[in-house]
Amino acid sequence: MSAITSLTIRYCKELVFAQTASQVLRLACYEVGRSGLR
């Protein structure tokens, strides 16, 4: 039971990290595109 719980926690952490990373990446691409158009 603890193994499944730790696996679920790890999966959730990676999912949150992936979402945060994609948000940061999207924001960075948006900033680069905006400054590039200037």
Protein described:
Helices cover 95% and strands 0% of the residues. The protein has 38 residues and is mainly alpha-helical. The protein has one domain (1-37). The model has no long low-confidence stretch (mean pLDDT 91).
List the helices and strands and how they pair.
Layout: H1 2-37
User: How is the main sheet built?
Assistant: none
Number of strands: 0
Helix content: over 70%
SSE series = H
- Counting H and I runs of at least 4 residues, what is the number of helices? 1
Shape: rod-shaped
When the domains are counted, the total is: 1
In short:
The protein is an all-alpha fold and 38 residues long. The chain is 95% helix and 0% strand.
Keywords:
38 residues, mainly alpha, 1 helix, 95% helix, rod-shaped
